[in-house]
Specification:
CATH topology of the largest domain: BirA Bifunctional Protein, domain 2
CATH class of the largest domain: Alpha Beta
Largest sheet: 8 strands, mixed
Structural class: alpha+beta
Strand content: 15-25%
Order of helices and strands: HHHHHEHHHEEHEEHEEEHEEEHEEEHEE
Radius of gyration: 27 Å
Number of domains: 2
Number of strands: 16
Strand order of the largest sheet: 1-9-10-11-14-8-7-2
Distance between the termini: 58 Å
CATH superfamily of the largest domain: Bira Bifunctional Protein, Domain 2
Length: 425
RNA sequence: GGAGAGGUGUCCGAGUGGCUUAAGGAGCACGCUUGGAAAGCGUGUGGCCUCCCAAAAGGGGGCUCGGGGGUUCGAAUCCCCCCCUCUCCGCCA
């Protein structure tokens, strides 16, 4: 959420930014409503002030044993006027709030111009694609041939877009979780959290999934609870409606969670294999930082995510998202994409975003230095990293001519020393 | 799911219609005191909205005792709805 102050001072910039993100918002209408609200507020508060003074007078007179009835006379009209104005306000305020919640964040000046994913800027590359002297297989064939995933039975359980890992595949998932969490906690300084994966509406609104993305989430309608699409939601909301001690910042959390996405509107896209699924696993990093440090913190967040890929020896590139491709809440974002030779394409495994104070304002996350007024923190988060596409990359990059898959060295301690996954004989 | 208890400021805690612009205590900050500290004494102590002010500082007003409505000239206090927490019972990993 943007502050009304900011929108008032730079309406054109806000309207233009919304257009870049293809958000259908009418800033002029919003400001007109804001103006109306403030006018009404002034009127109603003046009347309330009168009424308060009169009530006080009545109390005093009664205590002094005097007759207060002359004060009563005019109060009826005042009360009626207040009631009328309040009703108008009550109609306007939710409307204004609803509009405010649909205004996207303004891209940072440092985010490159552009409208579509094609306009994203490749900022760097690391490593090189593997040299394979055979025709690389796609991960779904590798996994099926090795017996580490069972796509058919997963469909039987839950439908398309769900995964069933078995044997070494399952072990791989578990190992990845520990590998990434250990890296972020012991080397990158994050505090580990284990969070709920079902959250309430306030959480979803706080981080910006609601109201826009409701149809993309699994919802337990009986309880009005949502399955999280990312750990960003519960972890960022840990400090919702809090004023943090300025000395505590930055606060850095990392946590593993499963993630659930309905992917409404993308049916028929990437239906095969693990590229796009309804439930997947992810280790996430979330930071609460002082505003003046957030862009430095974004760089280190991206480096922390890159380290995961580097340790696993996987070829990747870093994209800087153009203004038009930024998500609703983000001001700046880096995507990390892994090279997958089997499906012959780049696959996004991490988004590292700075939301500045956009989420903090929605979620009421502030900090205070001694003797100062509270300020909103800046929030950031990044995948560190998402599992399915990482697994795709491991399988496809480390596949051997004989159909086996070599386990990256850094991962071996986490999978019981296993050096390769080989087909059952 | 059933029954009960409760939600007050940073914390504890009082408070059943106007001497409460929330008592008292603790904590915190500042000052006095001290060789220094503790104790003691004094002063102060939140958040949101809005207006005045070029801005900052400052000041005015409104709201804020879980949330939302209502009664009343006046509500922490009375009424209604909702949420949350705790205890016991039931069920259950």
């Amino acid at each position: 959420m943007l502050s009304l102050d900011f929108i008032r001072s730079r309406p054109d910039a806000v309207q233009a930014a919304a257009a870049e993100k293809r958000a259908d918002v009418d800033i002029d209408a919003l400001l007109a409503l804001d103006e109306e609200r403030r006018t009404l507020l002034q009127q109603v508060e003046a009347l309330r002030s009168e009424l308060n003074a009169a009530s006080k007078q009545i109390g005093e007179k009664k205590r002094a044993g005097e007759d207060p009835s002359n004060v009563f006379q005019k109060l009826g009209a005042t009360k009626a006027a207040i009631k009328e104005l309040e009703e108008k306000l009550r109609a306007i305020e939710p409307q204004l709030q609803a509009m405010l919640l649909t205004v996207p964040n303004v891209p940072s000046d440092t985010s490159p111009p552009g409208k579509t994913p094609e306009d994203n800027v490749v900022r760097s590359q690391w490593g090189a694609p593997p040299t394979l002297d055979f025709e690389p297989k796609a991960h779904w064939d590798i996994a099926s041939d090795l017996g580490i995933m069972d796509f058919e039975r997963a469909t039987k359980l839950s439908g398309a877009g769900f995964s069933l890992f078995t044997g070494a595949g399952s072990r791989l998932v578990r190992g990845l979780m520990n590998f990434m969490l250990d890296l972020h906690t012991t080397e990158h300084g994050y505090t580990e959290v284990w969070a709920p994966v079902v959250v309430n509406r306030d959480c979803m609104t706080g981080t910006g999934q609601l109201p826009k993305m409701e149809e993309d989430m699994y919802c337990c309608t009986e309880d009005d609870l949502f399955l999280i699409p990312t750990a960003e939601v519960p972890v960022t909301n840990i400090h919702r409606d809090e004023i943090l001690d300025g000395d505590r910042l930055p606060i850095c959390y990392t946590g593993y969670t499963p993630c659930f996405r309905r992917e409404a509107g993308s049916y028929g896209k990437d239906t095969k294999g693990l590229i796009r699924v309804h439930q997947f696993d992810k280790v996430e990093m979330v930071k609460f930082v002082r505003p003046e440090t957030s862009y430095d913190e974004l760089e280190s967040l991206r480096e922390n995510a890159e380290t995961v890929l580097q340790r696993l020896g996987l070829h990747y590139r870093v994209l800087e998202l153009c203004r038009g491709d930024l998500s609703f809440a983000a001001a700046k974002c880096y995507d990390l994409e892994l090279w997958a030779p089997g499906v012959n394409r780049w696959l996004e495994v991490s988004s590292c975003s700075n939301f500045e104070d956009f989420q903090a304002r929605r979620a009421g996350i502030r900090f205070r230095d001694k003797g100062s007024k509270p300020q909103f923190v800046h929030t950031l988060n990044g995948s560190g990293v998402a599992f399915p596409r990482l697994i795709i990359a491991i399988l496809e990059n480390y596949q051997q001519a004989d159909g086996s898959v070599v386990i990256p060295e850094a991962l071996r301690p986490y999978v019981g020393g296993m050096e390769a996954i080989t087909a059952p004989s």
